[in-house]
Specification:
mainly alpha, flat, 4 helices
Length: 98
């Protein structure tokens, strides 16, 4: 199994499946909610996206606690994407064309 080969030495494999499921669910639910005018899908999808971003950050943090440029860029990207989710949710909540 490839996931087992890539797991950290402590034996706890990262929850890649949960991250992927949450991310994909959010990516599908948000546009579906916008197209259908169902705000609950937008909010649930946004929560799924934020949860997956938190999981990405937590999975990276314990094993790679460096302060290099890549680490700073990774954290900045996660923060930017989280802020984008919040701004997108706010914009979808107040759409003048519906």
């Amino acid at each position: 199994m490839v996931a087992a080969a890539a797991s950290p030495a402590d034996g706890n494999p990262p929850p890649i499946g949960a991250q992927a499921i949450l991310w994909n669910a959010g990516v599908i639910a948000v546009p579906l909610g916008v197209l259908l005018g169902a705000r609950v899908f937008v909010v649930l999808g946004s929560l799924a996206l934020l949860a997956s971003l938190v999981m990405f950050w937590q999975e990276r943090r314990p094993r790679h606690a460096g302060s290099g440029v890549l680490e700073i860029g990774y954290v900045a990207l996660i923060v930017f994407m989280g802020a984008s989710v919040l701004v997108g949710t706010a914009l979808a909540w107040d759409t003048p064309w519906f």
